[in-house]
Amino acid sequence: MIQRVQSLYLLLAAAVSAVLFFIPLFELPAASANALPKIFLTTSNSFLFLLNAAIGIFSVVVIFLFKKRALQIKGCRIIFLMVLVIIALVFYTSDTIANGLDQKVIFKIGSYLPWVQFVFVFLAHRAIKKDDELVRSADRLR
Known about the structure:
elongated; about 140 residues; three-stranded antiparallel beta sheet
């Protein structure tokens, strides 16, 4: 049953992951008046790139595990962990770069999108658990 609400939440998390490839995470202002500011995307860091791709792919894979709710719940927990790592890595990377160059980082919308992913995965996890409890209560009545 792909039309369940948790599938929609996981699909939205995968869509946010796809959008995150093209939206800047943060930028460093130009050092001189003639220079352009340095913009950082998830593609700027290979680990960020791989982690973001894994979140998107894993979110889609978890959608198709609808017959195995326990495995779906574990998959959502793994996605939780990956999203938390990507959030920490974005802010760690920006802090490291800013301290190395003695400049202030300007955070863009891309640095906040992993929080949106986290909310979507949380809602999907909650819906899967509710679905599992409903099936277990129906099994008790038999």
